[in-house]
Amino acid sequence: MLPLRPVYANLTPNESVLNLISNEMKEIRDGTKSNKISQPLVLDIEDFKGDFSFDALFGNLVNELLPSFQEEDADSLEANGNINGNDALPNGRSGQGQGQGQGQGQGQLTPLFPEVDALLSMFKNSCSQLVEIRKQVDGKLFNLKKDVSAQDSKHRKTLGELEKGVDGLFDSFARLDSRISSVGQTAAKIGDHLQSADSQRETASQTMELIKYLMEFNSSPGDLMELSPLFSDDSRVAEAASIAQKLRSFAEEDIGRQGVTMQSVPGNATASRGLEVAVGNLQEYCNELENRLLSRFDTASQKRELSTMAECAKILSQFNRGTSAMQHYVGLRPMFDVEVMNADTRLVLGDQDSLPSPSNVARALSSLYKEIIDTVRKEAATITAVFPSPNDVMSILVQRVMEDRVPKLLEKLLVKPSLVHPPPMGEGGLLLYLRMLAVGYEKTQELAKDLRSVGCGDLDIEGLTESLFIDHKDMYIEYEQASLRQLYKSKMEELLSESQLSGESTGSIGRSKGASISSSHQQISVTVVTDMEISGHAGSGSGSGSGAGEGVPGGSVQPEVVSR
């Protein structure tokens, strides 16, 4: 048996067998092998492993190898001058001497492939071997099928046993899960009972402690020296405040219930004293603790220790919702100092000897109110970082601004003149007061809008602003009418003065007398047009003469003076 050469190890079965046959044919053609094949080509079943096709093998032999051999033989014969391209015959033989001239006989036919018979013998031998190989392959396939069938049956049997085992395992897991669930539910119930019992135990323990503390406060009036160390330890102030508030609430409720019981049972003179002493002592202790916390809060505020301030504010929020701490903080702000308010008056009114101008007052008010807004905005940042309820503190702060700082300034700015003896026109008259009122009203409304944008909690700042001017608005119509009368009188005096000056400038007695008579008979017609308009808005009126009432909140009376 001739095995395949190693060079064909990586080729497909068709290519390996084809190359083997090709080499055999070349050896026969080249004469390296005897004409009679002593050792026929032996094929082995190993040569046909993989994808093998007989059709492809013989097709390649016919279509590739044989034409190449024909071309090689034709080239060799043509080189020797023995045959031309037309000598090849389909039967594998060629004619020599055809067409070489007259007188020559027909050339003898020689086979194109001298070893055709040997190759045919080799092919027949190969076919018989292939048939034998096919039988071997069929036998092996049959044996493999039997083995596969046996293994498949064994495998199915094993799978069936495994499925039964898995089903049993699942049943066991289901029973185990059911038991675990039952145990879990029981454990949860036990846990709930234990938690409830622990909560009740904790409540009972706290109640016992509260009762002990309550008895300490109810021992004797005004005696706070025998209290537990908890109420004097500065590191446990928050806990002490919480307990004191609980005791105070409980004692007050007990007194209320006791009062109802005594009223429902007349003649019960032997009722117990109750917890009046405890309520009094608790009130005294809470006041002392609150003052102590406020003192610590002030110290931290001076040092700008926001964390300490926030801690104190949180504890103080348990006392009346922290109102005392909020009011205390707002009351200590430098913006409400007396010196600051006096500086406000000097900034707006200027020197006392000079007459204030509405335009200068408007500019000064704008500058002052802007400073107030900036201060409130800075305080808002601190309040937000310190207090648990910053909106409530901002409401108190803005209310203090609108009820303390602004009213004191407006009180000095808007001094009501007397209607019986109004100030002379040389000092501005009633018109100056009306213009100051218009400027103050307008700028204060702008301040209220800015404070609303910064934040003022639930404070009705618009209503608070209107309340600052309610006294002035109630008397506004009377003041404007009086101002118009004063303006009218001033204009009349001015006209009479001009008339007298024009009469004296004639230069003659007769003419002076005639002018005097003419002047005495001069008719003066005055038409006063009254237009009362009550308005809640203000303008910055700066007119003079007939425009006395422009831009002032309230009504306006416009006189028209015509001289003929």
Proportion of helical residues: 55-70%
What structural class is derived from the secondary structure elements? mainly alpha
Query: What is the topology, as strand order, of the major beta sheet?
Result: 1-2
Strand content: under 5%
Oligomer: single chain
Write down the secondary-structure element order: HHEEHHHHHHHHHHHHHEE
The count of DSSP E runs of length 2 or more, i.e. the number of strands, is 4
The number of distinct helices, counting runs of at least 4 residues, comes to 15
Distance between the termini: 156 Å
* Rg (CA only): 63 Å
Q: Which spans have pLDDT < 50 for at least 5 consecutive residues? A: 1-9, 33-38, 82-107, 265-272, 507-564
What's the number of domains? 3
Q: Describe the global form.
A: elongated
Your description of this structure?
- With 564 residues, the chain is mainly α.
- It folds into three domains: 1-89 and 111-192, no CATH class; 229-262 and 274-328; 333-503 and 520-563, no CATH class.
- Helix content is 65%, strand content 4%.
- It contains 15 helices and four strands.
- The protein has helices spanning 13-30, 54-80, 116-217, 237-264, 276-303, 306-316, 323-331, 338-349, 358-386, 390-413, 429-454, 461-468, 470-474, 476-504, 509-520; strands at residues 93-95, 109-111, 524-531, 556-563.
- The chain has a two-stranded antiparallel ribbon. A two-stranded antiparallel sheet has the order 3-4.
- The longest helix has 102 residues, at 116-217.
- The protein is elongated, with a radius of gyration of 63 Å.
- The model is unreliable at 1-9, 33-38, 82-107, 265-272 and 507-564 (pLDDT under 50).
